[in-house]
């Protein structure tokens, strides 16, 4: 007699688990956009300030898990010290931006700061970068993160992640949407996000896609990036570019 209710309970449990699984997969339909970049590459700054900022337009961010990975073409010497393509200031700012992303995980908040720093870099006002904390409404905790050495820990993590990219990045900005590298077509990231999205809450940004030219077909576009420096980066496994 007792077997009936317990079978029924088991059945109910099964149904609940199934519903839970369905619900949790449908809520993780966010598209991941990862930007591998370095803070003082002018093409990264241009991409962040003039293009990536569109991820906050017309609801697109509601389906995007935005990941910023400030390491780029830097590398680690055998004795453990970092070498950055645009010098020690770049290593410093990479770590500051890594700290900011970690301390303020909300993309809207940390992107405001990073946009500000990259805009100053484009306008040759790098010495004013510290004002970006106030201008983006953030505290200066990322500076403590840097001086405590935690920024370096984060950078080593980003270095490892960047070196594991398959295929390896050939240049920065290097944009990856759900594991698909966009290569030279990175400025069209909105189209790739909308195509990759499998959910039902279609944001406005995906309903009327602007007619974008496919930049992988634009020959002149190819030079507007910072290439992996083959001669000075012995750890790079990226293929040579001809
Ligand atoms: C999807 O991304 C948005 C914005 O980044 C975030 O608020 C939401 O929690 C994310 N959903 C999931 C399931 O990760
Ligand atoms: C690491 O090695 C480089 C050159 O090989 C040198 O310039 C640098 O000072 C060294 N750094 C440390 C912390 O020893
Ligand atoms: C751009 O063109 C390339 C090659 O023709 C193609 O693989 C890619 O999907 C196109 N991108 C978009 C956004 O249509």
From TrEMBL:
InterPro entries given for it?
Answer: Interferon-induced_GILT
Tell me a Gene Ontology molecular-function term this record carries. oxidoreductase activity, acting on a sulfur group of donors, disulfide as acceptor
Give the keywords, sorted: Glycoprotein, Signal
Signal peptide feature range: 1-27
Q: Which Pfam families match?
A: GILT (PF03227)
Please give the family membership noted in the entry: Belongs to the GILT family.
The protein in question is named Gamma interferon responsive lysosomal thiol reductase family protein
């Amino acid at each position: 007699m007792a077997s009936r209710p317990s079978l029924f309970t088991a059945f109910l449990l099964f149904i609940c688990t199934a519903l839970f699984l369905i619900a949790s997969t449908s809520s993780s339909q966010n598209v991941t956009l990862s930007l591998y970049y370095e803070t003082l590459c002018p093409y990264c700054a241009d991409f962040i300030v003039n293009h990536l900022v569109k991820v906050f337009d017309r609801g697109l961010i509601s389906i995007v898990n935005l990941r910023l990975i400030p390491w780029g073409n830097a590398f680690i010497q055998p004795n453990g010290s970092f070498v950055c393509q645009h010098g020690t200031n770049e290593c410093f700012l990479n770590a500051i931006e890594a700290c900011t992303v970690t301390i303020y995980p909300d993309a809207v908040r940390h992107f405001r700061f990073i946009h500000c720093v990259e805009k100053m870099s484009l306008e040759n006002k790098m010495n004013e970068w510290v004002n970006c904390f106030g201008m983006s409404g953030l505290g200066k905790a990322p500076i403590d993160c840097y001086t405590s050495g935690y920024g370096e820990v984060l950078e080593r993590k980003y270095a490892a992640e960047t070196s594991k990219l398959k295929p390896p990045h050939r240049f920065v900005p290097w944009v990856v949407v759900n594991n698909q590298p966009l290569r030279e077509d990175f400025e069209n990231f909105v189209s790739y996000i909308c195509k990759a999205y499998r959910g039902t809450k279609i944001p406005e940004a995906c309903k009327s896609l602007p007619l974008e030219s496919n930049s992988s077909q634009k020959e002149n576009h190819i030079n507007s990036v910072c290439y992996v420096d083959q001669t000075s980066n012995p750890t790079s496994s990226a293929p040579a570019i001809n």
